[in-house]
Amino acid sequence: MNRSIRTFAAAAALMAGPLLSGAAFAEAPMVKTQAPGYYRHLLGDFEVTALLDGTMKLPVLKLLTNARPEQLAAALRRGYLKEQVETSVNAYLINTGSKLVLIDTGAGGLFGANSVLLENLRAAGYQPGQVDEIYVTHMHGDHVGGLMAATERAFPNATLRIEKADTDFWLSEAVMNRAPPQVHEFFKGAMKSVNPYQAAGKLKTFEGETELVPGVRAIPARGHTPGHTIYRIESKGETLILWGDLMHVAAVQFDNPNVTITFDIDSKRAAASRRAAFAEAARKGWLVGVSHVSFPGLGHLRAAPGGNGYTWLPLNYSTLKE
Known about the structure:
Oligomer: single chain
Helix content: 25-40%
Low-confidence stretches: 7-21
CATH class: Alpha Beta
CATH superfamily: Ribonuclease Z/Hydroxyacylglutathione hydrolase-like
């Protein structure tokens, strides 16, 4: 071996030690953050942008009802989950070409959540002042809390549309005073979020099935709250149905739609609404958007053979521009 090759080999040996040991790499601190949460999907002529508001942990074995604890625990294990399930809080922005419609607004400062919906809205290329209309599935804090940014309306130019049965319930101090004290914060959060829009003349209620703008229709799906509403988006023969809180725990409720949650005002009615919505979406092959399925919460349902359950098929992830 000539001298130059021996010299190179010796130098390489000196360098290989620390490189192979990995010590240099171990010194880099962990970042512990995710990329901005938005996902784009074209639905006919409409642009749908799923927006992540963040995640929250739910003690689901304590919250889910209408099933034995051992059944719930087994379903979670099958999904590689523990009792504390981290669930996404998703909202959906619909650009119809003439209107920019936001469906649900995330938790904002409520629920103790680290809300990032406005950050992700801007990252997606939009500004809060561009939103024309906001449609709320129901008035729980993780769906209306993002209406406010501190003491100001987060969407200053938007008209807020909510089913009247929900505003009659959640904005009523008389109803709140008749309710158990442990749920008063739900009422106060709804009032804090919605009352400023009402005071500004920006709140418009609707009742029952209603087309709010061309291609966007509100459909009653009551039980979770008195006015819980789902929204059907249609363009060029394509359909997206946005479910709000028809379901909370994918690992449990897709397999058994009869499982309910303590947040339901009327659990029997909520279960009936869920069964009907699941069956229709599976039968018609609709795309579905779900508030509390792992972001972006978009997918299809397929009925399980020989049973009452369903398989959730997440939308194939795409980075392509159509």
